[in-house]
Amino acid sequence: MVSQQKRQIEIVLAEKNPLLQQSLVKLFSEDDRFCLLAVAADGERFLAAVERLAFDVGVIGWEMPYLDGRGVLQALRNRPEAPRIIVYTGSQNPDVPRQAMALGAAGFCSKNDPPSQLMETILAVAGGRMVFPFIDVARLAADPFAGLTPREREMLSALAGGLTNQQMAGQLDISLNTVKFHLKNLYDKLGVSNRAQAVAFYLKGREGH
């Protein structure tokens, strides 16, 4: 009796670094467990590939031009039949795995890990598992602001104090554009879309303490 050959895991890759992109293409081409269907240089092109291709696993960066990993995950969140997503990043932000998990990613792998770790993560995720480094979920549940950087906590406190963007820029000695950048990240992490909702979240979190 001839054994049935296992179906290859179909992958689409989003990676902004051309050299790493080439290395990963070579890696996948040499491993017959995987079939790399497409390569994108940014999040927008990755979403375009999702529109035209059916595949098992997407491997995406976190910091990408045009649309970052957070934006990709948000776009796919309520999409039926969306591929399972692994965030593959060299970001030094220790909160990225938690953010990726909260946004619906199925796995996380650091670029500091050996390539074999990425392969194992893809196999596990394709098999229906979630793969993340240890995240203290109890601590996160106890502190709704656990994922915020010190600067983002400052911004949230300033918002609650009624400061305008201009006033925050002056108080924190940063530019107006930097204020807007931090606020966007803050809103994304809290899952809110404006300052009124952020302040409401802040007040609710303080009540819980």
Question: Your description of this structure?
Answer:
By secondary structure, this protein is α/β, with parallel strands linked by helices. The chain has 2 domains: 9-126, Rossmann fold (3-Layer(aba) Sandwich); 144-208, Winged helix-like DNA-binding domain superfamily/Winged helix DNA-binding domain (Arc Repressor Mutant, subunit A, Orthogonal Bundle). The protein contains 10 helices and 5 strands; from the N terminus they run βαβαβαβαβαααααα. A 5-stranded parallel β-sheet has the order 2-1-3-4-5, with helices on both faces. Helix 7 packs across helix 9 (176-190). The protein is elongated, with a radius of gyration of 20 Å. The mean pLDDT is 86.
Global morphology: elongated
Number of strands: 5
Strand content: 5-15%
- Taking the alpha carbons of the first and last residues, their distance comes to 65 Å
Output the CATH topology of the largest domain.
Answer: Rossmann fold
* Strand-pairing-aware structural class: alpha/beta
Name the assembly state: single chain
In sequence order, what are the helices and strands, one letter per element? EHEHEHEHEHHHHHH
What strand order characterises the main sheet? 2-1-3-4-5
Low-confidence stretches: none
How many whole angstroms does the radius of gyration measure?
20 Å
Helical proportion, percent range? 40-55%
